[in-house]
Amino acid sequence: MTCTLYICTQMHSIATLAPNLATQATYRRAAMHASMRFLLRPKPCSQIFPISPLTTQLAYRPKVHYFTPICVRLRFSFSTQSPRLDDISSLKRLGSEACKKYKYPSTLMSSVRHPFLSLSTSAKPPTPIHLQRTFIYRPFSSSSDSETNMADKRNMPSMNTAEVHKIGLNPRQIPTLSYTMQNIAISFATMIISTISLLFTASVILPLSILRSFLPRERMMLASEKNHTTGVDGHAPRNKVVLIVGASRGIGFNVLKQYASEPDTVIIAASRSIESLRKAVIEIGDTVATIQCAQIDLTASKKQLVDSIKVLDRQYGPITHLYEVSGISNHLKATSQWGLDVTLDMINVNVTGTITSVLTMYELMKVRKYGKICVVGSVAGLYSPANMISYAATKSFVNTFSSSLRVLAAPHGVEVVTVQPGFIDTRMTKMMRGQGSTVPSNEFASAEGMAREMKMAVEEGGAGVVCWPGRQGVQMHALKAVNPICEEVGKFVSMKMGLSGRKIT
Q1: pLDDT of 405-446, one tens digit each?
Q2: Which domains are assigned to the chain?
């Protein structure tokens, strides 16, 4: 027996609506199959979502856009002779609840059909539900549904922007002969500089690194704190006091968990939302370290942000470690369309707020001759698709600023580490995948692994830049060596491939 449930929605709702519907149904019934696969056409690419347990297949037609109205057909196959009334009502109720809870522009159609596929005279015990979902691409038949969804469509930004989807090549974009020769010269110079860099690293830095590996760990830790005083009582700080800005989720939350098991450690978990922080701390449970929650809003004025950090330093400090993790992208909001306002918002948080908190802490640490600062940039700041224009630009600033600050801060006993994450499984990258990113799921590393690498670099020293996953960092740093013409072509090609999705950010 099968039950067929029709849901009117839009293309962007499928990836989240159907999994949530099926996941809730799982708790009502027995276990289902445990994998979920999306096939994107005309460019095949598989993405494995951590939704369990079901099996499905989704095909994008070339002319079906992100906000195209469609009808979704959910077919539930039962191995029982006939469906119980509560089974059918449960399916309808779960569909309605999912649409309401996740605020989808969706209408659950009232008709539920359950034609009998086969009849069995023998009495068999019920077995787990087998779920098959078929996606039907067609406009809404109901006029009211169509009007509602078309209104939503007008209020939401189009993913089919001309900048991303049109080629627009014209003869004026063909490089001139002199510009091409200049790029060839740049490539030759890059090869020479890269060769010198390789020889210097292999002949000078590598032997020193090998020698360092034989030194006792205790001696390295002692060297880290030698002559580092607080400027208050003339003694080195007894305990670690770790300030994590952006600790409520993602990488920052996992950094919080890395320090939670350390005794004699005070963790100041800071975020814009105190409520999110409390939920995060509750999720961790009992800890050896002392955790204090604080509100820090990177969008606040310079004076407010500086005062907030100084108050925390006086109240819980002196602060010995700063992890600046916060950052935003309009990937997080489906209705946020790229433009001047979005760009200024990203600059305000990713650049102004980040640098204000970092320099405020640096000035305090410089007086004490001791401190460790870890700033999160991104490999997108090294090389990125053209449609990551504003986000990549802000992260490029952070990469450059923090790596230069490392050199300037070294004489004052302050260590600065730049973190350049690749594709990490966070809330932002989940949204990016939902917006059409073609990056395979196995390329997304865990936020926990990223946090572990960050802590290791900060505590052990000797690492100015942390790229993780390492393979992605190597690739992005290598792409920095391309000449301007190839850089422009690469940005265009990677945008067309949809590596960062179809949204401009």
Answers
A1: 999 999 999 999 999 999 999 999 988 888 889 999 899 999
A2: 2-156 (no CATH), 215-497 (3.40.50.720)
State how far the Cα of 8 lies from the Cα of 86, in Å rounded to an integer. 23
Whole-prediction pTM value? Answer: 0.69
Over the stretch 84-134, which tens digit does the pLDDT of each residue have? 444 555 555 655 655 555 444 444 333 333 332 222 223 333 333 333 333
Which residues lie across from 371 on neighbouring strands? 414
Beta bridge partners of 434: none
The pairing of strands 46-48 and 107-113 is unpaired
Alpha-carbon distance of 374 to 379, in angstroms, equals 15
Task: Assess contact for 371 and 362: CB atoms under 8 A.
Answer: yes
Tokens found for residue 131: 């779920």
465, 359 Cβ separation under 8 angstroms = no
81 is written with which tokens? 């002779």
Question: In sequence order, which ranges of 247-385 are alpha helices (DSSP H)?
Answer: 250-259, 274-284, 302-316, 340-346, 354-368
Q: Would you say 18 and 72 are in contact if contact means Cβ atoms under 8 Å apart?
A: yes
| Packing angle, helices 14-28 and 85-101, rounded to 10 | 140
- Kindly indicate the confidence band of residue 217, based on its pLDDT and cuts at 50, 70 and 90: confident
Q: HSE of 413 in the Cβ direction (CA atoms, 13 Å)?
A: 20
